[in-house]
Design a protein that fits this description.
The complex is a heterodimer of chains A (359) and B (172). Chain A has helices spanning 9-12, 14-21, 29-38, 53-100, 148-165, 196-204, 220-244, 250-282, 304-357; strands at residues 110-112, 136-145, 169-176, 184-192, 208-218, 283-291. Chain A has 359 residues and is of the alpha+beta class. Chain A folds into 2 domains: 54-106 and 302-321; 120-298, no CATH class. The model of chain A is unreliable at 85-122 (pLDDT under 50). In chain B, α1 (18-37) crosses α6 (122-133), α5 (111-118) packs across α8 (149-171) and α6 packs across α8. Classes of the chains: A alpha+beta (359), B mainly alpha (172).
């Protein structure tokens, strides 16, 4: 007897049960013959695997998840190997250029940005030194982060002190610090080219280096051209002066005097330009920015395994997004299908009850 | 109803032949359908249909999930319900069903028992057949009928009580 039954019908209705079981209800011979004629079903060998439905329901999601994970891992590995080579190829020449100084070509500026792509910009890397045998326009810009407005003021003063101690001067200072916004000081320092490397190292120590830019422009060719021009003008002036000492018509004398004035003006301009170029070659220009603003988070460079994991996660995220979108799209259909299945089942049960209730 | 399960732990896992199962269970299925329909001719037809259907779907029978008797009863019930549905449609169409087929074959049972069984609904006769005659256990019967165990037990209790009352009245 089942545990849910509260009565034992074999005992409670013993006589009735005996009577019911005594009813002759054996199948007639023609029915027996009909069934016997069916014989034995052909056992077809099928390649199809017959899984229990419950097992399939449990296994299907697990298999699908495993498949997605496997594809994600493969995608991550493939993407990591694809991305690694070009990055290295792009970085290598820049470092090679920085190492050589890159200043041998005539007037072509050599722009070096050794800090920009760095993953950890808080430590200064060596800057290319000036070439002592050539005239160069050396410019550098440096962005440093300092902690708080008080330190900003102190570091600004220190930077000015460094410039002066190296024989340079402060071309301009612009310091801003107001409550609620990050403080900032912009300085333009002129430091003898011979001391620029030392200056940059000492300035870098004033805070956390966020960005550094060095630009070196060769001035040798320009200075040579200027000197040639000055020499030509001097020769011209000497020639005109000699000519004027001789007797000549008044018109010619006037023309020569005009030429002499023009040549003297050009000589003054050329001499001034040359002096300016030499000043540029003598003093480097350093633009220093001190800020209290935090640096943007720099994504650390990943190794191949890290890139593979990152790629796999990105793939999974994309797959999840697609699955979610698909779910959103088909969810109304799923709801309708569920309602239809449940409704049809309820209707079938009701129909069965109705059919079996008729006496 | 194409699926069923059972909780019987001692179900033989070896697969018998269809012929042996048919030979062994034919009387039980016939008796069940006879009680369900109350008509010998219909029961005979439905029994034949049941075994033909079982023959076609024999490949799906899994002894690990239930006995052959339970499986056959499930098929028999489905066949019987199809028959009832068809008859219902026909009755609605012709409005003559009651006069033609609404009769319990009184020759099957004695007069008293026939009258008593006639007072039961097919659903009640069905549960009596499965539990008393075919001796299926409560949970299996409930699964075959697609109802809860409690409902199955209640239905059986009510049917037997009414049957006994009617038979007592008949004897008096």
């Amino acid at each position: 007897m089942a545990a849910t039954e509260t009565f034992d019908f074999e005992r409670d209705y013993a006589e009735l049960v005996r009577e019911l079981r005594a009813v002759p209800a054996a199948a007639p011979e023609r029915l027996r013959a009909r069934v016997r004629d069916l014989g034995e079903p052909q056992t077809r060998r099928s390649l199809r695997l017959h899984w229990p439905r419950r097992s399939v329901l449990l296994l299907a999601p697990v298999c699908a998840l495993s498949l997605v994970l496997a594809v994600a891992i493969v995608a991550g590995v493939v993407s990591s190997s694809r991305h690694s080579s070009p990055e290295r190829a792009a970085v290598a020449p820049a470092h090679a250029q920085a190492a050589t100084g890159g200043t041998s070509s005539a007037n072509k500026p050599a722009t070096l940005t050794p800090f920009a792509p760095s993953a950890t910009p808080d430590r200064a890397t060596p800057v290319p030194p000036p070439n002592a045998n050539r005239l160069q326009n050396y410019q550098a810009s440096l962005v440093l982060r300092v902690h708080g407005p008080d330190e900003l003021g102190r570091r600004t003063a220190s930077a000015m002190q460094i410039a002066r101690s190296l024989g340079g001067y402060v071309a301009s200072v612009d310091q801003t610090s107001s409550s609620g916004s990050p403080g900032r000081a912009d300085l333009v320092l002129r430091v003898p080219v011979a001391e620029v490397q030392s200056a940059l190292i000492r300035l870098s120590a004033l805070g956390t280096v966020l960005d550094q830019h060095v630009s070196i422009r060769d001035l040798d060719a320009l200075v040579s051209a200027q000197r040639r021009r000055i020499l030509q003008l001097r020769v011209e002036i000497a020639r005109i002066t000699t000519a004027l000492q001789q007797s000549m018509p008044i018109a010619d004398r006037l023309r020569l005097e005009f030429q002499l004035d023009a040549a003297r003006r050009d000589l003054r301009a050329a001499t001034g330009a040359n002096a300016s170029t030499l000043r540029k070659a003598a003093l480097s220009r350093i633009e220093l920015t001190l800020t209290t603003q935090r640096a943007a988070v720099v994504t650390p460079t990943r190794g191949r395994v890290g890139r593979a994991v990152h790629g796999a996660i990105r793939f999974l995220a994309a797959a999840g997004a697609i699955a979610l979108a698909a779910l959103i799209v088909i969810s109304p259909l799923l709801v309708l299908a569920t309602i239809w299945v449940l409704g049809s089942r309820a209707w079938r049960r009701r129909e069965e009850r109705r059919l079996l209730a008729a006496s | 109803m194409s699926t069923f399960t059972t909780t019987a732990p001692s179900v033989p896992a070896s697969r018998p032949t269809f012929a042996s199962v048919a030979e062994r269970e034919l009387d039980a299925v016939h008796r069940y359908l006879l009680f369900l329909t109350g008509n010998r001719a219909i029961a005979e037809d439905l029994t034949g249909d049941t075994f033909e259907k079982a023959f076609r779907s024999w490949r799906r029978f899994d002894p690990r999930r239930g006995t052959a008797r339970t499986w056959l009863c499930t098929i028999a019930r489905s066949v019987a319900l199809d028959h009832f549905r068809a008859e219902d449609r026909r009755r609605r169409r012709e409005e003559r069903f009651a006069q033609e087929t609404r009769d319990v074959d009184e020759s099957v049972w004695g007069d008293t028992l026939a009258a008593a069984l006639d007072s039961l609904s097919p659903a009640e006769r069905e549960v009596v057949a499965l539990r008393v005659l075919l001796e299926l256990d409560g949970p299996t019967t409930a699964r075959v009928l697609g109802i809860s165990r409690t409902a199955c037990s209640t239905r059986l209790s009510r049917a037997l009580k009414r049957l006994e009352e009617r038979m007592g009245d008949g004897r008096d």
